Amino acid sequence: MNLIEKLKNQEKYTKYSIYLIIIFSIIVITLASVYHVSGDGCWHMPVGKYIAKEHKFPLFEPLGRDEPFWSPPLYHIAIAAVYSIFSIFGGNIANSAPKFIPPFFGILSLAFSFLTIRKLLNSRTAFYSILFMAFVPIFIDYSVLSYAESILVFFVVLSVYLLINNKIALSGIAAGLSILAKYNGVFILPILIYILYKRNDKKAFLKKSMVLASFCILIAMPWLIRNWILLGNPIWPFLNFIFSGIEAKSYSTLDFSRIVHPNIISFTLLGFFGVPDGNYAAFSFFGLPLIRILLPLWLVASIVFITPAFIGIFHSKKAPEAKIFILWLSSYFILFLLYVLNVGWSVSRMLLPAFPALAVFWAFGYKVLMQKAIFRKTAFLILVIAAGLVFSEFIKFILASNEWSFYNHDFEWVRQNTAKESVFIASGQCIPYNIERTSLHFSEENIKNADYLWLNQNFRLDKRSVLSQNEIQSIHSRNFKIAYDNKSTGTRIYQIKQ
């Protein structure tokens, strides 16, 4: 029996889900092809390339951040593997190929979310659930952006799927790999333990819990021990005030005032619908025409799209296995609150591993709308809004890519006119990534070891690259030779060593 015949023999909601996963795959792969690496991706990519070339993990090497390499390394290992494999086709292909890692894991996350929800509930609920996931902008974003979230979400979902299929050891391995993707993976463990508790007697529960925990620890613990030995804190830089790890920029405060601030709602919802970091200041970045008209329409459409999730919460009590999804969402909501207290409001992505659970509640609410004739037009409107949200994602990624293209001549000049071993003073993550040169943050000590200095006070794509007035005055007082000056982009490159 060929694939087409197998597809025809599937029941309708499974068939619909396959079509939806194909559509989602086309969307994220297309977006990845136009996407220009930015944000934290400008750090992840060089780290992965370093691992590929040096066959070891970095520690204090200058790879885009003025801090040691501490991050759980699974995503970076994936980058290194893909980069190494595609290096045989040349540098351009090797540099581009890792961009398609997040789409790969995003597609797998969607597929395994369907399989998990179908196993626990039914295929109709599973289809509506992935309908939400496939079109909500934040899930699309992190299935495209060069961040670790896509691989984290996949292994979180996989751990649940394996457990409900009684693959205890494999579930523990998947949970351990989720922690090796991001520390956040540990918050799936309460859900896994709960599932074991509900499905086993006391003796079997204890035995299976030990098996699951052992495999999870076996996978995740070596990296935590490494960080504890080298950095003094297994989860550095978080909660550094508890572990007294090495001093550096770390999140060492708990600000309880953030919990009651209106930004916790606005940043979260805006983050869900594709606004970078949920920061409403991003609306003014591109200066889009008719923004005063489009913005209110977009906000209303976003609220309408998310509404079934709130309806579904009140219609979930009678659903089988509902407590699993409630606990799943609650566990990551606690993580979300901890991040708000410790880091700030721009943490919508902390909830991504719980999106299959949130999607289930959305599905419950959407089914309520579909069952009542008075609300069916609203249900159809939500599908129209979904299409509009996807369209807005394409506009966003194309505009962002064009912004980066504006500086291509500057980046190319550096790559063509400076030695590969040259050292630059270039703060931020993304200048070093684009010029492909070792870069140090601005300091009096670093200037002594650098060959060139990158200056662009209007570089809004990475605000951390903008220097202070005192630093600017320091540069002017030294009378460095100007090696490159692009008045169009505002980029100036000074030659430090003659």
Which features characterize this protein?
5 strands; 5-stranded mixed β-sheet; single chain; 62% helix; mainly alpha
Using the alpha-carbon principal axes, give the shape. Answer: globular
Bin the strand percentage: under 5%
Number of helices: 22
Uncertain segments are none
Helix vs. strand class = mainly alpha
Helicity, as a percent range: 55-70%
Q: Write down the Rg.
A: 24 Å
Total strands: the figure is 5
In round numbers, the mean pLDDT is: 89
Strand order of the largest sheet: 2-1-3-5-4
Separation of termini? 71 Å
Largest sheet: 5 strands, mixed
Helix/strand order, N-terminal first:
HHHHHHHHHHHHHHHHHHHEHEHEHEE
Describe the 3D structure.
The protein is mainly alpha-helical. Helix content is 62%, strand content 4%. The protein has helices spanning 3-8, 12-34, 41-54, 74-86, 91-96, 101-120, 123-135, 137-141, 149-164, 168-181, 189-199, 202-231, 240-243, 263-272, 291-313, 322-342, 355-371, 376-405, 408-417, 430-435, 444-448, 469-478; strands at 423-425, 438-440, 452-455, 481-486, 491-495. Helix 2 (12-34) runs parallel beside helix 7 and helix 15 (291-313) crosses helix 18.
